[in-house]
Amino acid sequence: MFKRKFAAVLLAALLLLTGCAPKDDFDDYEFVEYPPVENVSARTEFEEYDGDVELISVLVTNDRDERFSFGYHISLQKDVDGEWRPIRIIKEEYDLLARYMPEHCTLPLRFDLNKYVKLPLLPGRYRIWVGNEIEKVPAEFTIK
Fold first, then answer.
1. Mean pLDDT, all residues of the chain
2. What pTM does this model have?
């Protein structure tokens, strides 16, 4: 029994020493910033989450005088030394349903991160983009 515990601890120490520590799963494309969407904003339900979070609710507020269309396709980025780098999406999901939120309202959107990205997310500052192909707004959050 003692030998097994000792072997497990030794193996974990060796993995850390050899550089097998967890790494962010960045994608290799360059993300192009979306232009600001006037009178539409987004924020996550909480400012801070644990790395093993699977569901994130994003509250989108449409304060303009027209509808705002959105989909459940997401883009996720992490702030690395002041530069936003894209996190690899493991499963692209598109549907052809047009979703609209009425003018002057707030709508919660729930995203199952487990379907889209490799978990757990490592500590740092992230942002998730929501909207449509032309207009997207970011919601920032921290993984502790």
1. 85
2. 0.79
